[in-house]
Write a structure and sequence with these properties.
CATH architecture of the largest domain: 2-Layer Sandwich
Bound molecules: phenylalanine
Largest sheet: 7 strands, mixed
Shape: rod-shaped
Radius of gyration: 40 Å
Structural class: alpha+beta
Helix content: 40-55%
CATH topology of the largest domain: BirA Bifunctional Protein, domain 2
Number of strands: 9
Oligomer: single chain
Strand content: 15-25%
Length: 336
Amino acid sequence: MNKATVTEIRKQFEKALEEVRDTAALEALKHGYLGRKGIIAGLFARIREVPPESRKETGELLNSLKTDLSAAIDARSMQFAVPRKQKEITDFSMPGYAMHHGSRHPLTQAVDDMLNIFQHLGFDIAYGPEVEIDWYNFESLNFPPDHPARDMQDTFYTEGGGVLRTHTSPVQTRYMSTHKPPVRIVAPGRVFRNEAISARSYCLFHQIEGLYIDEGITFADLKGTIELFCRLYYGKDVRIKFRGSYFPFTEPSAEIDVSCFLCGGKGCPVCKQSGWLEIMGCGMVDPNVLKAVNYDSERYSGYAFGLGIERMLMMRLGINDIRILFENDVEFLKQF
Ligand code: PHE
């Protein structure tokens, strides 16, 4: 074996490689030359025949032949692999992989949209704690001691004598206790009521409280603000209606209905054929509430309102079971 043998084998290999048409043939070629019993291994075995003085040179020659051959085989195998891969990724009829985005909960979206409107109307945002003391939740809001809302059946009491707030109205007196008039705030948050859980009521829900106190504020200001809010939130064609009502902390008090946006007031299952949907309670802040926070009730007056978010959202989305808003079912939430 000599240099010429190696050159000859290299030539044979190159010719054979050119004729290779597929991966199987390439594998066979590789096995024939580079395998454990292949041609190259055979040459290495014959190195003993070479005179000692040129063994080193022949060894180097064989080593570089081996390296070149395996590099050539690898390069060729890439040529087979590439077209196949390209064919796979250029199948434009393949459906793509869906990317799942998280999104804000529909309740959060509704609250954000409403707060945004009130901020444009000049309201600040205030927050209060979910665990309240009786004074803010009831006493300061002019609840008589025997008012049914204080009943264990409606209110969750904590061991230390606190209450889980049953509405966002305690934020009114909390805020007024630490701020001088004028005040103009909206207060979003969770409220809790110990009611039997059903399609229509849940042990917790969300409200937005509104409060505006200044000199000379009248029911007309309340009406104008609510009307504007409803138009901005529901669209300019919405009609609203004030219905006389009662709350201990407002006098006079009203509940507000908006014309059903699904049927436009004609009557449908969502509005129970009445054409109207109730969305909030409101009224002029009772002077007793102003006195409880040491405001001069002769000088100052104002209005308050409390919006039920779940109700508004259920009507808007045509949902008939409130529990779906709290279950975090991904199939439901994915729609938003
Ligand atoms: N707090 C009342 C409720 O939860 C709503 C309300 C707020 C009414 C402010 C009047 C004024 O039902």
